[in-house]
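Ticket #4471: complex job returned nothing on first submit. Input attached below:
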Amino acid sequence: MDPKMEPRHTIAIWVDNTPGVLSRVTGLFSGRGFNIESLCVAETMDPEVSRITIVSTGDEQITEQIIKQLHKLINIIKVVDLSELEHVEREMVLVRVKAEDKSRAEVLRIADIFRCRVVDVSASTYTLEITGNHDKIRAVLDLLKNHGIQEVARTGTLAIQRSKKE
Amino acid sequence: MKLTGAQILMKCLEREGVKHIFGYPGGVVLDIYDELARTPSIRHILVRHEQAAVHAADGYARASAQVGVALVTSGPGATNTVTGIASAYLDSIPIVVFTGQVPTGLIGNDAFQEVDIVGITRPCTKHNYLVKDVKDLARTIHEAFHIARSGRPGPVLVDLPKDVSQGSTAPKFPEVVKIKSYNPTYHANPRQVARALDMILRAQRPVLYTGGGIVLSDSSEDLYKFATSLQIPVTSTLMGLGGFPGDHPLWMGMLGMHGTYCANMAVSQADVLIAVGARFDDRVTGKLSEFAPHAKIVHIDIDPSSISKNVQVDIPIVGDCKDTLGQLNELLKDKPVRDWTELRRPWLDTVNGWSATHPLTYVWDDKVIKPQFVVEKLYELTQGEAYITTEVGQNQMWAAQFYKFRHPRRLMTSGGLGVMGYGLPAAMGVQMAKPDACVIDIAGDGSIQMNIQELITVVDNDLPVKIAILNNSFLGMVRQWQQLFYDRRYSATPMTAPDFVKLAEAYGAVGLRATKPEEVEPVIREALNTRRPVIMDFKVEPEECVMPMVPAGKAMHEMLLA
Ligand SMILES: Cc1cc2nc3c(=O)[nH]c(=O)nc-3n(C[C@H](O)[C@H](O)[C@H](O)COP(=O)(O)OP(=O)(O)OC[C@H]3O[C@@H](n4cnc5c(N)ncnc54)[C@H](O)[C@@H]3O)c2cc1C
Ligand SMILES: Cc1ncc(C[n+]2csc(CCOP(=O)(O)OP(=O)(O)O)c2C)c(N)n1
Ligand SMILES: [Mg+2]
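Support reply: We reran it on our side without changes. The output follows.
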């Protein structure tokens, strides 16, 4: 990791599924100068509750402020800094990469090593689906960059706490 | 029984005990105003600018400890409230602002006088609502009041589309409001409180640093008991003035940028600093790394996000001031009796030494009125019992320094946002809440021009508000910085004002003027003896500075003294 980089925090937020909640959350981040690296949001099993996962960077004091400020928003039910806990993280990426003649095999080899799926093929490109944590995704994209990435779409990080070991 | 949205609003206001609303009508609130005219239990005060309605509701809330209410129309009516809302937000003042909105079907269409006021005010309200269905109206209004007044108080905005006020339903009024994701912590953790007390009891040089939280939670008596039992000297922020009596021997004066030498030195030398309902604002701390460098810090605050925001504290206590001070006072009863007056003598001698060598003072002039002298005289002639509002700038700081507030809820000032133009509308609100009280706006010649139109509201409603203008012909506080830090280049700060005496008369108020020191007292006496609104125009020394002053970014002990 780049030593200058601030630590990443993965924060899970449960919110009332009402209009405007997402903009309250993102407004809080922009208004107070907090970073958002990625953000995912979708309904939970309870349709009245949504779950937001935010990856943010900042030192301990900033992260503490972020969490306290989030708690203050009226529609926020629960906030958990998953980075403090044992947790699993996943992100999915769709990437269309150039694959011509001799590089076609190499791209497929990379896809194979990292267990990516080929979801679309053309004469000069492959579109891959990559799933993994932050480090794996970075590793794959770094390798694919050499071949020429045409387009990337990322979901942003999702995370869930590991079940407690007995 | 079915009621219209407008009728439901009136019912809810009655249920919340609302007696006064400050407002201004317009197209989309016609139905509400129609209903209001048929609701005799609620008095509407027609302001002359919507910003003033919000400041008036703010002043009303501070003086009365009730939620203040404002009502305005959509579009420009709504945008005009933003400054008032932001001020109440930064000062944690409980108000509810109702804005009209275009009918739900037109929202998002750039309809006539449509603005997304919920979007605009999201970062400066404690919470806000757009009501889309009349069935949600009653619950939403009661939630709004509950949120405004509970926990750390603040402004809540409720946006009411025209079809919602016109629509009808059989409303269900909730007996109690419960919001599952909102539960402020009032009761402080007893173990933390006990730890704090142990630390306080061991302190050699303790200081109480109190803030707006004392006033908001009405816990000044608990504070008094705690401070006097342990003989701990007290300082407070601008927002906390009056939370501890300003004429008590343990009182050190305000701290911070324009605080007293004594208070700032005491904080700089303290070994234990007890912060109660204060938020370590940068006007208070100065250079953060040198704030209270020798002190262990106890911080009591109902809002966890206030704690360790700017200054890392040693014992954080999340809870209500009243609850926490109550617990501390209870715990004290079980501690062995000690002669605190005797034990505290060395520290109090040091503290008293600082205030004796560096009292708040100014250079007297026989010919020119000193602004501090005017405030001193106001204090003297009202026996410190008046309700004081201020504008912003030097006038505000002199009011804070030279009026010794003896009771809480007697100073209303825009502290966090510093809104010029706050004082007159706020005074209006205070006078509505306290009809028999003496209410004085200590004003600057610049600020008073920002909401001077409210003079007619004051006259119209027979409010005997007094306005004392410290007229220095300058935007004085900005000029002071130019004098001290920009080589006296007075760029855009000399300012002309109208003839305030004639202006008062034009509005139907009384206008008085003093140009020499000996005229100050007679003018104040005459004003105080009048049941009518009065402007007192004091022509004061133009280039007076507020001292002491901690220059921006400097440590608290690095004060400029004169
Ligand atoms: C020109 C100008 C100059 C200024 N100079 C100074 C100066 O020299 N000195 C100075 O002090 N200020 C000064 N101010 C004011 C300053 O900007 C801040 O508004 C002020 O210092 C904040 O006061 P506070 O810390 O008491 O916080 P407030 O804004 O009053 O906040 C109250 C705190 O109490 C908490 N609280 C609320 N309710 C409760 C409860 N029930 N129980 C427990 N806690 C509660 C809140 O969470 C919050 O943390 C100046 C302002 C202006 C415009
Ligand atoms: C709405 C607004 N605009 C600008 C400022 C910046 N400002 C702070 S104090 C001040 C001067 C106020 O002048 P006056 O009311 O005459 O008071 P004085 O300092 O002279 O007592 C100004 C312009 C402000 N606080 N509020
Ligand atoms: Mg002035």
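Residues B 444-446, 472, 474-476 surround magnesium ion (ligand 3) (CB under 6 Å). Closing as resolved unless it happens again.
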